[in-house]
């Protein structure tokens, strides 16, 4: 199996700087934003820095719902209640927030777009400078 490679330290620093710009831009617009490992229980924009030295590397944002709704959805998924309205609602909110975050980030001078539809990062936003 091939060893997973990361970008060099300078490229990683550029990605972290870009992620900081993303958070500042979103927070300035009134959208809670935080690092993906610092998830806010109220929900908001989770910013992920992928330092992989491959086509999947970069800065990504995923909308997260509140902890309460996420817990409800997880319980529904465990019992395979996939058509429950709360799951549908969550998906619609995530799609709407994806569009909103793209518009806000592009207005702030960044280049934001939906992630590729390969299933690896559904409803996420990819950001570059």
Summed up:
This protein has helices spanning 9-28, 67-78, 85-107, and strands at residues 33-35, 44-50, 58-64, 111-114, 124-128. The protein is of the alpha+beta class and 129 residues long.
- Portion of residues in beta strands equals 15-25%
Give the neighbour order of strands across the main sheet.
Answer: 1-2-3-5-4
**Secondary-structure element series:** HEEEHHEE
Provide the helix percentage: 40-55%
The geometry reads as globular
Gyration radius, rounded: 16 Å
Low-confidence parts, pLDDT < 50 over ≥5 residues? none
The major β-sheet equals: 5 strands, mixed
Mean of the pLDDT scores?
Answer: 91
How many discrete structural domains?
1
Number of strands: 5
How far is it from the N-terminal to the C-terminal residue, by CA?
33 Å
Notable traits:
alpha+beta, 5-stranded mixed sheet, 5 strands, 20% strand
Structure description:
19% of the residues are buried. The radius of gyration is 16 Å and the shape is globular. It is built from three helices and five strands. The protein has helices at 9-28, 67-78, 85-107, and strands at residues 33-35, 44-50, 58-64, 111-114, 124-128. The protein has a five-stranded mixed β-sheet, covered by helices on one side. The N and C termini lie far apart (33 Å).
